[in-house]
Amino acid sequence: MKNPNTVIVQLENISKTFRTRTSFLTGASKEVVALNRVSFEIFKGEIFGLVGESGSGKTTIGRLMVKLETPDSGKLWVDGNYIAHIKGRKLKNFRRKVQMIFQDPYQSLNPYLSVFDSVSEPLVVHNVGDSKTRRDRVRQSLHAVGLSPPDDLFYRYPHQMSGGQRQRIAIARAMVLEPEFVVADEPTSMLDASIAIHIFNILSDLRKKFKVTFLFITHSLAAARYLCDRIAVIYKGEIVETGPAEDIIQNPQHPYTQALIKAHPRFRHSLKRNIIRSKGT
Amino acid sequence: MALLTVENLSIGYHTRKGFLKSVQGVSFSLAEGESLGLVGESGCGKTTIGMCLMGLLPENAAVTGGRILFEGTDLLQLSKTEIRRVRWKKIAMIFQAAMNALNPVHRVGEQIAEAILAHHADISEETAMKQVESLFQVVGIPPDRINDYPHQYSGGMKQRAIIAMALSCNPPLIIADEPTTALDVIVQDQILNAIKDFQNKLNVSLIFISHDIAVVADVCDSIGIMFAGQLVEYGTVKDVFNAPMHPYTQTLLASYLTLDKDTVHLNSNPGETPDLINATAGCRFSERCAFADADCSLNTPEWIEISPMHKTLCSRFK
């Protein structure tokens, strides 16, 4: 399925600096380097993991790819488009092909919109189909994320649903336009472990069914390993290591990747500690 | 004697749809210096138990049965004034949302000193600040950050400050409610080490509430698995991890992503949380259980003792 020759996303020496005003009166500002000469590529049909801690710049990369931010320097191509120059009709077409799933399903869904309105909104914005086709597309999309029977959910509101269901609605909303490329920014960090696995399995199925490419942003190497084909590890705005998921876990080269692996909670640790403890008492 | 004994505790919430039985017949005990982890998914009642121990249940909650014996007195019989004397001085809490638990317009050091002063009329402000300094040392915040404001702290530092605040009155029992949930792996590791560290040094008892079973395994001596308001398995971390008995515990352990095991595809159909307003007498996990038969959804499950320190609420082992 994966064709390593087709690159769908390419970043070349992308840098981005944010300016924050530190003084209200003098207007003095401070520069924060979010990304420093970041380069990597994502192949068509793969799930690519971007792993790093809070503040490492991983979300900024995701936002650049969907053109919610613009880079200060460097080149970025997504799905054949040179992002810096894209505007007007071409940009609208680009927005149809590239979608984003946000971290917090409690905030990313409009509480005043029913499930049907939320999921069909992208179709309305992009003027896709008549009302009957839209209903069918919404139904298919909800079905694809495992929410069935979909019709029962149409007129429910976000507050009537669990966190896992809300995130699945958000995924259905991202998938309804049948995008080529989807950025999933920590889609499970607000959810329980068993529900997180469920969401991962849904993303994995969507990739198989619709041949969609994913950028999966996470702070958990274990999650990236479960879901991704390849992983890039980002630290303080720089990519420190890129490679096939299993290689990164089994044979980490960069000290930061090694630290990430070491910090991951393990069952073995606790058992050892307990044995030592019971001997002492 | 145990520091804390919870017997048959039941708590519910009055909601528009009816009375929601959030916690049902939960019993456990905690010795001095022991740490107990309460694990379960969102809505299983683990935070409700923590809030009840602190006497901080919201207005619409009601305790419908049971006792909470702490140092020999039943906390549920205390008046509001009496419970205020216990709270923080005897039982303190490390809150979930560290980002919001500090007051943004006060310096961090002063906020912690305030907690000390509120409970000790005889201590001067200077002594309180001295104590804050030593607390900062225990939790690992550099002493020159004592006069900073919360927004100058990183997420991990704020969580450390919250821990320092919980330790400020030297309480025998600390409840930590998801203290690392908002943090990334490396900071989580540091905070867990800080918690293990103070627990060993100060010999406080700890109730650690989390949905992350691996985190609990890292910190606690014993573990209670909760599902839909009930404790379903209880034992030492070693017993529960080496020989999980309840089907729900087995699911939890199987769905945990590690870096050690070979990658396998995990089947997941988490299913819905049962209706806690019209809860039936049968086993609450039966709808999601792979081993369930017709009796499971009809008969009330009973506790089965596997060993003196390990028991489970499941009819399968009768």
Task: Categorize the overall geometry of chain B.
Answer: globular
Q: Helical element count of chain B?
A: 10
Parts with pLDDT < 50 across at least 5 consecutive residues of chain B: none
The biggest beta sheet of chain A is recorded as: 6 strands, mixed
Taken as a percent bin, the fraction of beta residues of chain B is 15-25%
Provide the structure class of chain A: alpha/beta
The count of β-strands of chain B is: 12
Give the proportion of residues in helices of chain A: 40-55%
Radius of gyration of chain A over all CA atoms, rounded: 21 Å
| Helical run tally of chain A | 11
Question: Strand order across the biggest sheet of chain A?
Answer: 6-7-8-3-9-10
Helix and strand composition category of chain B: alpha/beta
- For the secondary structure, the number of strands of chain A is 10
Mean pLDDT of chain A: 88
Arrangement of strands in the largest sheet of chain B: 6-7-8-3-9-10-12-11
Run of helices and strands of chain A? EEEHEEHEHHHHEHEHEEHHH
Low-confidence stretches of chain A: 269-281
Euclidean distance between termini CA atoms of chain A = 57 Å
- What is the CA-CA span between the terminal residues of chain B? 31 Å
